[in-house]
Design brief:
Radius of gyration: 23 Å
Family: Belongs to the MptA/B family.
Number of strands: 2
Subcellular location: Membrane
Oligomer: single chain
Order of helices and strands: HHHHHHHHHHHHHHHHHHHHHEE
Main location: membrane
GO molecular function, one term: glycosyltransferase activity
Protein name: Alpha-(1->6)-mannopyranosyltransferase A
Length: about 500
């Protein structure tokens, strides 16, 4: 079976299984309306879970096989469109966050402040669907996030199903921006557009969590991608900065890209009377001013406040080893307990979160300085590479990290002609993370047997996918052609298999 067809079949399994084994409604939903509610519990749910899990495994396999065929950009784009289109009709999967999005919008609509009050203050159909862990938690997201939720709930009223449909449309719009921007960023900085789209959009983590899970990263990453593309293509970066600022008004982590845009502005205006340091200050001040102006405009339009700034670091409930502080605490606690059996994990976690917060600030500053412009070379590629590295530092050291957070890293990882090890690590980690989450949102990251088998599968897949191909004589020089990352070099529009004359 061709990789594209395998992916279509896998996404169809995910879509069908999602209605019984996904992040299903606690009350109501399509299965109940169709008289098939028995598929959401007992043996029926087990069957649906089997379909969904098989679909996820199939999608990962299709993604790997797709690159093994050495596809062109058009082939990757067709595959992504087919897979995303089928996932678009699934129920929410891998997370219940979209219900919280709707609830927070309904709170703002009804006159409550999601920055100071939890969802429990506003009983109704949306509250019934919010995970119990989040019913008394404030939101760390910006005014655009709340404005979108307010608009959706104003439009659909208390109809949860219609609210999910509208949020899926938001996710698809954001994902479309990512698909449109990534190949163009790669072309602008001398990368491989097909690799950029395969790694950054066809990636199962992106498809499952941004479209299936409907996380607001879809819109945020889409806006940042288009904003970066504008800054790379145009001498005047202000419109691109405004788009990134719009993304910041959705989720603060989008701001990680801005310091590298400032370097880009400095590079293009270095020959001025202000000097390099003066130009750096001027460009930084201008970028900050544009951000504040855009966010203030969104805040005014949505009817919210700047209270989200106080809530950014407030979420500490999520515990998983995707976050560096959590992983460190889990490694050092057993060691310290050998010397003091009263030592507690929470004590270690408090220490590591404090230490890693400092490491984040230092790491971001170091990355920004390492990826500064160099004399005599274009800065565009380094700007994209630096942005990718900065996002990786931010999420690896953050107190709480979930798989969809890494969408900012994954989306850019293939655009800038990265070293082979970057692609290998991204592919391997994507395979493990894509397989680690169940339809309901629970994960297997503490299942040692799963982690061992998933790691072995990832290593085998990466080695098979990127092993050196046989040397092919070059028609032009009689030498050998070898493309990056184990993909045979060929013209972009050439057939998958070519033979020397």
């Amino acid at each position: 079976m061709r990789p594209q067809s395998l992916g279509v079949a896998a996404c169809a399994l995910i879509a069908v299984g999602s209605f019984g084994a996904g992040a299903t409604r606690y009350r109501g939903g399509l299965l109940r309306a169709a008289g098939l509610e028995h598929l959401s519990y007992g043996h029926g749910r087990a069957l649906m879970d089997l379909l969904l899990t098989a679909g996820i495994f199939g999608l990962v396999l299709a993604w790997v096989l797709l690159w093994k065929t050495r596809p062109g950009l058009a082939q990757v784009r067709r595959s992504v469109c087919w897979w995303a289109g089928i996932l678009a009709v699934s129920a929410p999967i891998l997370s219940r966050d979209v219900y919280s999005y709707l609830m927070q919008g309904a709170m703002l609509r009804d006159g409550y402040d999601p920055y100071s009050e939890g969802a429990a203050v506003n009983p109704g159909p949306y509250l019934w669907e919010v995970s119990h862990d989040w019913r008394n938690t404030t939101t760390p997201y910006g005014p655009l996030h709340l404005g979108m939720g307010k608009a959706v709930t104003w439009l659909v009223g208390e109809n949860v199903t219609l609210g999910l449909v509208v949020y899926r449309l938001f996710s698809l719009a954001g994902f479309a921006l990512i698909m449109w921007a990534l190949p163009r960023i790669a072309k602008q900085v001398g990368g491989d557009p097909a690799l950029a789209l395969w790694l950054g959009a066809a990636n199962p983590v992106m498809l499952l969590h941004l479209i299936g899970g409907m996380h607001n990263e879809a819109v945020m990453v889409g806006l940042v991608s288009v904003g970066l593309l504008w800054c790379l293509r145009s001498r005047w970066c202000t419109p691109g900065i405004a788009l990134i600022a719009l993304a910041v008004s959705l989720k603060a982590t989008a701001a990680v890209a801005l310091p590298f845009v400032v370097w880009l502005m400095v590079k293009r205006r270095s020959a001025t009377t202000l000097g390099a340091a003066g130009m750096l200050v001027a460009c930084g001040a201008w970028a900050l001013a544009v951000n504040v102006a855009v966010i203030q405009l969104v805040t005014w339009a949505s009817g919210t406040t700047w209270g989200w700034l106080e809530e950014i670091t407030g979420n500490s409930k999520v515990i998983n080893p995707l976050a560096g502080p959590t992983l460190a605490a889990e490694l050092i606690t057993p060691v310290l307990q050998l010397f003091d059996d009263t030592f507690r994990y929470n004590t270690a976690l408090t220490w590591t979160r404090t230490i890693f917060s400092a490491l984040m600030l230092v790491g971001l500053a170091v990355v920004w300085w390492i990826f500064r412009p160099r004399r005599g070379e274009d800065y565009e590629r380094r700007a994209v590479a630096g942005t990718t590295a900065a996002y990786a530092v931010a999420f690896a050291t953050n107190a709480v990290t979930l798989p969809w957070y890494y969408a900012s890293v994954i989306s850019l990882a293939g655009t800038f002609k990265p070293p082979a090890w970057v692609v290998r690590v991204t592919v391997g980690a994507s395979i493990v993370v894509a397989l680690a989450f169940k339809g309901s949102g629970n994960h297997r990251l503490y299942d040692m047997w799963f982690l061992a088998l998933a790691a072995i599968a990832a290593v085998v897949a990466v080695e098979w996918l990127f092993r050196d191909p046989p040397k092919t004589p070059s028609p032009a020089r009689g030498g050998s052609l070898r493309a990056p990352f184990g993909r045979a070099a060929r013209p972009q529009d050439a057939p998958a298999e070519t033979h020397p004359a």
